[in-house]
Design brief:
CATH superfamily of the largest domain: P-loop containing nucleotide triphosphate hydrolases
Strand order of the largest sheet: 3-4-2-5-6-1-7
Structural class: alpha/beta
Distance between the termini: 91 Å
Radius of gyration: 27 Å
Number of strands: 17
Largest sheet: 7 strands, mixed
Shape: elongated
Strand content: 15-25%
CATH topology of the largest domain: Rossmann fold
Number of domains: 2
CATH class of the largest domain: Alpha Beta
CATH architecture of the largest domain: 3-Layer(aba) Sandwich
Helix content: 25-40%
Number of helices: 16
Length: 482
Amino acid sequence: MPHKKATLVPAPPLFAGTILDLMDILGLVGPSWRAWRSFWRAVFALPMSKADLERYRFHTRRTSKPKQPFREVWMPIGRGGGKSINAGLGALFLAISRDYTQELSRGGVAVIFLVGADQDQARIVLGYIKGMCEAEELAPYLAAEPLANSITFTTGARIEIKTASLRTVRGYTIPAVVADELAFWRSDDSAEPDTEILRAVRPGMARLKGSMLIALSSPYAKKGALYKAVRDWYGVEQSRHLVWNGSTLAMNPALADPNEITAAFEEDPSKAMSEYGLDGHVDFRSDIESFVDPAALDAVTIPGRHETARQDGVRYYAFTDPSGGSQDAWGLAIAYFDQQRDRSILAAMRNRQPPFSPQATVDDFAPFIKSYGVSEVEGDHYGGEFPRELFRKHGITYRISERDKSEIYRECLPLINAAKVELLEDKRLKAQFCSLERQVARSGKDSIDHAPGAHDDLANAVAGVLVRAARRKPAVSVRVAI
């Protein structure tokens, strides 16, 4: 049988210039773009002028010119410095300057991920890319009209929004990943989700030569993937990881209102140094530190123990962190004190993720609380009368804690460090404890709360009930006029 003659598919049009040529087309020129043009010369190892080399050395603490493009680019850069639009520029250039159709199986797509803490965050970079694609010169590279969450190109590449989740980034061929505002990714699903998510995408990036990670954020606390990148690779000459540190005004001298930066430094220097930077650089906040050591949590977590049944003759305590049901979760924990071993034992937990009905949540929680012989639950002042009224309908007294959240965490920490508690094995609970941060105010008084974008409903409920059990004292009753 004669073979059918193969149909030749014409090669897609490719952008033949450098990323600087793309910037010229998009009008990203002039004095306000000089630092970024030096940045991209460094990223792709393009020829550098004396001024470019000076900027490169200033922002990277390296001395020798790059000899080859970098595989990973880390950008701790101040707010308003232009990092998001440039991350979009880099993603667009990688999408249109290479023929991925020749490197993929038939029907395959090379997906460039835009990853943010949530889709709204990632959509900011996509919006910049959509604006760039409106340029007449880029029309030949578009395979179709851009969609709400993606853009497909004739080169076999697709730029697509992804949320910061381990479950959504596996199994793809990935030419590039843009990790936007990395220092502020949520920490609900893992103790260090940014590290785990970036680890999950690297195998997909390894399938293509020349793939690139573009990680950007204004810095925050001294933890997480961005901080580790700065700590390990900033100024390291031979590293394939480029760390470019730039203040807002160094990267964007055309910022609309520099007085905003001046006012920010007058109000809170440490915060302003991380958000905007000074003298060309930004820094991580010195007034914020992790509250608890993950190793200390591991030491008091009982592997395989997820809940314990009620024991006769044991007095149990309940603590809850209520929520209105639209934004925050609602946490509940039950514990008792083991007199013989001198420690508080976490017996059970419940957690309700939004959206939910507060009434339905209490309807579920109340029988659970009563099953441990508990007729009162302790919590904070949240919501005024509504949580008290909901529990009262089930014959359970809601009492207000005499300690606020920070005081509870401060009292719980030495119990954890001294192994005076036992925790259930629960991924969410560990992640929430690991996301807690201690922030020291100018007055010297510290506060403990979750990191931006994170949650602590379970951690708060567990810490509250462990402290409550350790004290073994009646809660303060608050009479409320109805």
